[in-house]
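hey m, so remember when u said the tokens were messed up on ur end? i reran from scratch. heres the input so u can diff it against urs
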Amino acid sequence: MNEYAIKVEGLTKRFGDFTAVDAITFNVSKGEIFGFLGANGAGKTTAMRMLIGLSKPTEGTGYVAGFDIRTEAEKIKKGIGYMSQKFSLYNDLTVKENIRFYGGIYGLSKKQITKKTTEIMEELGLFEVAKKPVAALPLGWKQRLAFAVSMVHDPEIVFLDEPTGGVDPHVRRQFWETIYQQADAGRTIFVTTHYMDEAEYCDRVSIMVAGKVEALDSPDNLKNQYDSETMDEVFLKLAR
């Protein structure tokens, strides 16, 4: 377990007669950027919800940061970072208020919150807009702020659920540069996306089709295996 940030075996989630996640198995190494790819409705978000302690599996086992997803969900929630597609920010609060609010949610002391607030605003260059409501920020800044806020408590593992949905390609590339910086600092990044070109930015990817992991390897190995030039081509061949 010590070598893995995430370890999953036979993980399954059923809703009545419908199987949303079908006996998936994979490991994620510490410090790895792991892409969890698939079309909308493939089961990505359902699987992530089990990993972050928001939904109990029907069958199978899973460990995140060494904690059992069945019995230690609360420990997992406190020890990970999570960024949803909608950025999890409060639009009516200012930039500074959002950072301080999430610092409090994650149990930081007043001194730690003050230090983290300064660090995040310096890193993102947000001092000029610190007292403006988040609603007034450009989409790219909201995205980067939401990512920073998800790591305000210095988690070892960060889960990103469709973090680049709805933003233009230039902003997407900028955001991936930020992800690289955090991975270089030793954080494990688990990211779901339906943009197949983003698979190229990951160390390894799994591709889900109808609730099952149909392929898992590095982008280059998958392209070689499926005789494809792009990950889009790989996905199309798997989805047939």
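this time it looks ok to me. The beta strands are 4-15, 18-29, 33-38, 59-64, 67-68, 80-83, 157-161, 188-193, 204-209, 212-217. if urs says something different then somethings off w ur setup not the seq
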